[in-house]
Design brief:
- The protein contains 10 helices and 11 strands.
- Helix content is 35%, strand content 21%.
- The chain folds into 2 domains: 3-155, Nucleotidyltransferase, domain 5 (2-Layer Sandwich), CATH 3.30.420; 164-276, Nucleotidyltransferase, domain 5.
């Protein structure tokens, strides 16, 4: 491993506890030994279906490893295309899995780390270790690149909500929700007319299902509740006619008042790419919108967003 790669790996681990750093090195050093170019040459020879990226000058790398469902995506801003993406279920092993996933994603796209000009990462809420690992890896990658990249930190709930915001009627709000374990949920609320959907930290909430139901009862506006809507939560919400639940992982119906957009069909399995895109793709597209708007997400230091104290 070159001295440059050791330097950026070391820098990325400074924020991690000692035990996490040990697990990180055991997992990463056994996997990442060659340069992306060397690895790509062997992969191309072994995998004839590889399609090299056509524009490797200003790529965006998006990471979301703050929960049990993790994703790494390489996005081409010029072509508005996801070149490669890896999605996997992690059992609290992000320390060992994240960097190999980055390497695999780059190789699949025919790209190298030096092609990355933008780095987007979810800053929480999520697991304490997962959020720290995502931010640390992004900072470490940035330190090792020859040209300092643009860093974009976004709440994971923003990435969940972003694909639905363009569809919601002006009178409706989009509330993203994610399961936080032990019957808890994380959610946020913001008007659907905000194209960047960057709610303040104060608008992020955490609690049991009863607290979420009470918050939805208190609002006087129609709400699209999108994300990880468990069957138990659906039952608790049956009496709230103004709340429409949409779980992208399951079949769903769009509300009748959705915005008329070409390519959308109102029914189960809606035919719109935005509703089937993964969280990594949604994060990448939202990050580009923030970049073009020059939002605070592109200028503020990367800081974890926690909704409760460590246990």
């Amino acid at each position: 491993m070159s001295s440059a790669r050791v330097n950026w790996l070391t820098g990325s681990l400074r924020l991690l506890p000692t035990t996490d750093r040990c697990r990180f090195w055991r997992g990463a050093l056994g996997t990442i030994r060659d340069s992306p170019t060397e690895k790509l040459q062997r992969s191309v020879a072994a995998d004839p279906v590889l399609v090299p990226a056509t524009n490797l000058l200003r790529m965006l790398l998006a990471l979301d490893v703050g929960s049990s469902t993790c994703t790494v995506a390489l996005f081409d801003p010029a072509g508005e295309t996801v070149l490669a993406e890896k999605v996997w279920r992690s059992r609290r092993r992000q320390t060992e899995e994240t960097l190999p996933a980055v390497e695999e994603t780059l190789t699949r796209a025919g790209a190298a780390m030096d092609d990355v000009r933008y780095l987007a990462v979810t800053t929480g809420p999520g697991s304490f270790t997962g959020v720290r690992i995502g931010i640390s890896v992004v900072k470490g990658i940035a330190l090792g690149l020859p040209q300092p990249p643009q860093l974009i930190g976004l709440p994971v709930l923003s990435a969940v909500a972003a694909r639905f915001v363009p569809l919601a009627a002006p009178s409706a709000d989009v509330w993203p929700v994610l399961q936080a374990g032990r019957g808890r949920f994380n959610w946020a609320a913001a008007p659907a007319d905000d194209p960047l959907w960057l709610p303040a930290a104060a608008n992020h909430c955490a609690g049991q299902a009863a607290a979420l139901v009470a918050a939805l009862q208190a609002t006087g506006r129609p709400v699209w509740l999108v994300g990880e809507v468990s069957s138990g939560l659906r039952q608790d919400l049956q009496g709230l006619a103004h709340v429409h639940c949409i779980d992208p992982a399951a079949e769903f119906d769009l509300p009748e008042d959705y915005k008329s957009t070409p390519g959308i069909s109102n029914g189960a399995g809606a035919e719109w790419a935005g509703l089937t895109e993964t969280r990594g793709e949604g994060l990448a597209r939202l990050a580009m919108r923030h970049l073009r708007a020059g939002s605070p997400a592109c200028t503020s230091p990367l800081q974890p967003l926690y909704l409760r104290p460590p246990q």
